[in-house]
């Protein structure tokens, strides 16, 4: 290809991009920071930037490594690059890239083949906890595993964990010293088994590059240009690996949105994005602010919501500009209780489906997964199918694995083109699929929806490729499974706000917007944690394309005697109801723990007295019972049941069993059993 042809191809890649996207795509020399707001065409911009660099002769495709956070995102990047005439670019997750490199270099670095991976971390954690005589249930084991993962992603050793955890305000299931002991035993168990966990993949790969010059030269010679998506979610361990890959070079493009920083609890550090221009003073910073996803009404609400957050130092802020036609105003709805809220949302979903909106284009978003139950029941009552997001991966479901195996066998036994859709239906009918509405609730409904998704996918593919065979369909399923690209399951999506990130729907209901839930009670003691809760609500709001409803309920159950307060994040956004104004007049001002007043201050003092006596009786330091942040959350939210108490910071199953009754007695104003002894 001549230079002129190459230049013409490069310019063609930029055609169709808006002014901001074009500026980002044309910035092919690093360091580059692309600040991409929600719905602004981030993936389109990334892929066109890489394609432009290749067609302009700046990049050799095989020397580009694009790092994503999900296998599906990596697969989408590869697919779009292929459509732009670019093949050979490596688009992988951090873990997949590290796995590929470490498997190749293991004999040189580790003196043998690639070690086995710990597939079930809970098994090893359980053994470590038992060795330290800790009584655990599945919940506390998951919490322990989460603490170990947090420690490893933040590069904290077992010895460093207690101090680092206290400084970060971690709410561990056991005292920090006990968690550190389990962490150390966990590491020793892995060493005895000769195994690595997923965090080790990154750590050992980074170590190999840092300590083995020949390995570093080979990897850095292979990869000369780097792109990192969702850079606001990078943790210290991932940044260490990225630095090792770069080796002091600056051919780096990072893409992120500081308004969507919602994973600090897992170790993600937004300072890498916010401080990028400080680290690279000559960096080119490009903003993408034209929102093509949502109506101007949704965009306006999102801007007002995030505009109330304190200004963070670092990169310039983003303000979305809606590009779609006008739509309905977002709705704010107050309900008397949670069942009434769920019934109203389910009724609205029913009306949308009846009006022609596909159920898969509707979502109900909540703060924690435990809130889904009442919405599952309400949707079932009105006959609307639903899908729980965040469960088992689609291609790992038993019914899907069985179906794919049968489809593969059927494809191997066919020697004709055959009609694809009837063939798929016949195979799936042999495992119980029938062409009607799903069975009511439970595992049968989930199984039917999974199989129906495969049928629907076959129908969609045949519409695009009429000659597609069963063997071709099976190959397509294999590609999707490798990329974790699940087909659409027809049903209203029920998802936590965290699980909704990266997704979008025509109509979104954001529910349960009350104090203690949004922001979650665990965040109340730390202003930075409260602001992350605001960003989480921002993420939920920006999932909506056209219709957005935000709702809350005054009590948990009908006739409840403890009125709840609407989320503080709706102040100045939602019109105040008479009930809201009355509660606001009665509610004490939110104050730091040392300045709690009124009933909250009295309860906090009562709880501290009880804690001192409980700690003395158990011969442990007071913080081992509960720390001040937990007592403050109790004093501010005044839980009325063990269920409500269990949602507060620092109260796992073990502490709930030991102290739950005493705490509820203190909340009710009675002398606790511990204090009376």
UniProtKB/TrEMBL annotation:
GO molecular function: helicase activity
SUPFAM superfamilies according to UniProt: HRDC-like, P-loop containing nucleoside triphosphate hydrolases
Superkingdom classification of source: Bacteria
EC number: 5.6.2.4
InterPro entries per record: DExx_box_DNA_helicase_dom_sf (IPR013986), DNA_helicase_UvrD-like_C (IPR014017), DNA_helicase_UvrD/REP (IPR000212), HRDC-like_sf (IPR010997), HRDC_dom (IPR002121), HRDC_dom_sf (IPR044876), P-loop_NTPase (IPR027417), UvrD-like_ATP-bd (IPR014016)
Domain (HRDC) ranges: 597-677
EC main group: isomerase
Domain UvrD-like helicase C-terminal: 296-546
Domain UvrD-like helicase ATP-binding residues, every copy: 15-295
Catalytic activity: ATP + H2O = ADP + phosphate + H(+); Couples ATP hydrolysis with the unwinding of duplex DNA by translocating in the 3'-5' direction
Annotated residues for binding of ATP: 36-43
UniProt keyword list: ATP-binding, Helicase, Hydrolase, Isomerase, Nucleotide-binding
Family annotation (PANTHER family): ATP-DEPENDENT DNA HELICASE UVRD2 (PTHR11070:SF69), UVRD / RECB / PCRA DNA HELICASE FAMILY MEMBER (PTHR11070)
Protein family (similarity comment): Belongs to the helicase family. UvrD subfamily.
Name of the protein described by the UniProt record: DNA 3'-5' helicase
